[in-house]
Specification:
- By secondary structure, the chain is mainly β.
- It has one domain: Nucleic acid-binding proteins (OB fold (Dihydrolipoamide Acetyltransferase, E2P), Beta Barrel), CATH 2.40.50.140.
- 0% of the residues lie in helices and 51% in strands.
- It has a 5-stranded mixed beta barrel.
- β2 and β3 form a beta hairpin.
- The protein is globular and about 45 Å long.
- The termini are far apart.
Length: 86
């Protein structure tokens, strides 16, 4: 029986490694005391197999078994490619 995997959407910050990219996921949450909406960001290292994202791309990552010490996510799809200016 296949269980549903957790998925997150974020921006590729670094694509300098061979089979791994760093994805920045931003959540908008309300501060507990001051009730102000703040941006909470977290960086995830994700494995790249068949799709090759570049820096600035918006991607969807999904949880997977641990691949290495820091990598337990994989890039499932590229939602939007980065726009090259100039």
């Amino acid at each position: 029986m296949e269980r549903k995997r957790q998925s997150l959407t974020g921006e590729v910050v670094s694509a300098k490694m061979e089979k791994t990219v760093v994805v920045k996921v931003t959540r908008r949450i309300q501060h507990k005391v001051y009730k102000k909406i703040i941006n909470d960001t977290k960086r995830y290292m994700a494995h790249v197999s068949n799709v090759v994202p570049k820096t600035g791309d918006i991607v969807r990552i999904s949880s997977t078994r641990p691949i290495s010490k820091h990598v337990c996510w994989k890039v499932s799809e590229i939602i939007r490619e980065s726009v090259k200016v100039g």
